[in-house]
Design brief:
Helices cover 15% and strands 44% of the residues. By secondary structure, the chain is of the alpha+beta class. The protein folds into 3 domains: 148 residues, Rossmann fold; 110 residues, Sandwich (Immunoglobulin-like); 193 residues, no CATH class. Strands 16, 17, 18, 19, 20, 21, 22, 23, 24 and 27 form a 10-stranded antiparallel β-sheet that branches. Strands 7-15-14-9-12-11 form a 6-stranded mixed β-sheet, with no helix packed on it.
């Protein structure tokens, strides 16, 4: 029996401990608030001359008519008890003038309206209307009204009643910090949605911010501003402010245009969202507190396709079936291979990548074809410039894990052949072709892999006879095989 009681007590304390921890956790999440500073002033009009009877009976001093007492006194929960936002009550006519009068954020604007002459039995009927005004946006935060009657039984009696009623009405604006916080609804949390889970280096994407709410999960005011910063890439839209871009909350959905850094490097991007305490539109929205952070991968695997020309049989280019045996040989005078730079663009399928062409350079060369007998055969000099582009290029490990790289290459070129025969003027043959299919295939992603056999892709009509001749070209792949292996493993993990 005694042991059972001990066990029950132990379980009770364990449950109590868990309950306390959960309460602290839940509370800590619910009170994540940004506590700014707000300057508030008052202008409560008592529009009666100081020598009038009504002023003598209940008149008040200063522009606030004693209205600020509740908000400045700890007795009523004011002063240092107003913590979020922190409130500074600014006196319009301070005893000791401030060097620089602060620009108010909010203002109590009120007015006394008094009817009657104070004579018994009706006395005075007093109405006090007060509005708390957001000066930055010209909006009323809250309005309150109080009506009472007073018969001046003795000197200062109605003044005392007026003060009591003023305090009673001002208490309806308390707690003032909560009233203002609930009105401003400063952004405290935001949901970040990425158009893509990972992004290719240099690529752009849309990032959407949603559910921009305060600590009570209420939508933030449309005029509230948030600041966005990307640690690696760039935010392309928004108002610039140092390292940040500034956006207004608006309807609660903010669309951001992001671009990853162009340098080809596998990296991790961090997007940081900050709120701001500055609510005045004419002041910059300085960052206050981080309210959201999102990491995503910057992805980059790049490669090159190099197209270069070669003689078919070392320096012996070809032998034409001429009526005369010219015995042609070929010599490379100048050659600049074509280079197509490309990157792999990820998709939602971890096994599939679009191949995106980046910069490319043309294939240029000059070949001289020299006959053995210059007396009866022409010497030919050919210059060529060809541009190449990728088409329908993808990497699909799911379709073919051994040869995942499928592509086509189009070619557009200009060529000029000069035929020179002794004792005769040279003949120039121009040839050009618009974009047309050249080659393609399904390749393994192996560095240095190239088309196994050089292909012939030029035709010549040469003065002095007809013949077919050609220039062999190689297409070669350059890629980082270690990065390719990481892609293959990524595909296998997701299958």
């Amino acid at each position: 029996m005694f042991r059972t009681i001990i066990n029950l007590e132990s379980k009770f304390f364990n449950l109590l401990f868990i309950a306390i921890i959960l309460t602290l956790f839940i509370t800590s999440k619910s009170i994540a608030q940004t506590c700014c500073w707000r300057d508030i002033g008052s202008e409560i009009l008592f529009p009666y001359s100081k020598d009038s009877k009504v002023y003598i009976d209940m008149g008040c001093m200063g522009t606030d008519c004693g209205w600020n007492e509740v908000f400045m006194s700890k007795e009523y929960g004011g002063g240092s008890y107003l913590k979020c936002p922190k409130i500074d009550i600014i006196e319009s006519e301070p005893v000791i003038p401030l060097p620089i009068q602060p620009k108010l954020d909010y203002k109590f604007s009120g007015r006394y309206t008094i009817t009657g002459d104070g004579s018994s039995p009706r006395g005075y009927t007093v109405i006090l209307n007060v509005d708390l005004i957001d000066l930055a946006h010209g909006a009323k935060v809250k309005s309150a009204k109080s009506t009472w009657t007073c018969v001046p039984k003795e000197t200062g009696y109605c003044s005392k009643v007026r003060m009591q009623e003023s305090i009673k009405l001002s208490k309806t604006f308390m707690p003032l910090d909560k009233l203002i916080y609930d009105y401003e609804r400063i952004p405290e949390t935001v949901k970040i949605e990425l158009e893509k889970d990972s992004i290719l280096a240099g690529e752009k994407m849309k990032i959407t911010l949603k559910n921009i709410v305060d600590a009570n999960s209420k939508p933030s005011q449309p005029w509230q501003r948030i600041l966005v910063k990307a640690e690696k890439g760039k935010i392309l839209n928004g108002e610039s402010l140092e390292d940040f871009k500034v956006f207004r909350v608006g309807n609660g959905i903010v669309e951001i245009e992001y671009q990853a850094p162009d340098i080809c490097k596998n990296d991790v991007e961090t997007l940081i969202i900050m709120n701001s305490c500055h609510i005045k539109p004419d002041l910059p929205a300085m960052p206050e507190r981080e309210i959201a952070r999102k990491k995503f991968n910057i992805f980059c695997v790049e490669g090159k396709i190099i197209t270069s020309c070669r003689p078919l049989y070392d320096v012996t280019l070809f032998a034409l079936n001429w009526e005369n045996d010219c015995g042609y040989t070929g010599e490379v005078v100048y050659e600049n291979p074509s280079i197509i730079n490309f990157r792999l663009k990820p998709s939602k399928d971890p096994c599939y990548y679009e191949v995106v062409q980046k910069e490319s350079s043309p294939l240029k060369y000059e070949y001289v074809f020299t006959p053995a007998d210059r007396d009866i055969c022409s010497k030919m000099t050919q210059t060529y410039e060809g541009n190449f582009r990728l088409k329908n290029a993808v990497v699909n490990f799911r379709k073919n894990s051994q040869r995942p790289f499928s592509f086509e290459i189009d070619n557009k070129y200009k060529a000029s052949t000069v035929a020179e025969t002794l004792g005769a003027p040279p003949i120039v043959i121009q040839n050009e072709n618009d974009w047309s299919g050249l080659t393609g295939g399904e390749w393994p992603l192996i560095n240095g892999y190239r088309s196994p056999v050089p292909e012939v892709f030029e035709t010549y009509i040469i003065f002095g006879g007809d013949g077919m001749g050609g220039i062999g070209y190689y297409v070669e792949l350059q890629i980082n095989e270690k990065e390719v292996q990481s892609l293959r493993e990524r595909c296998l993990k997701k299958k």
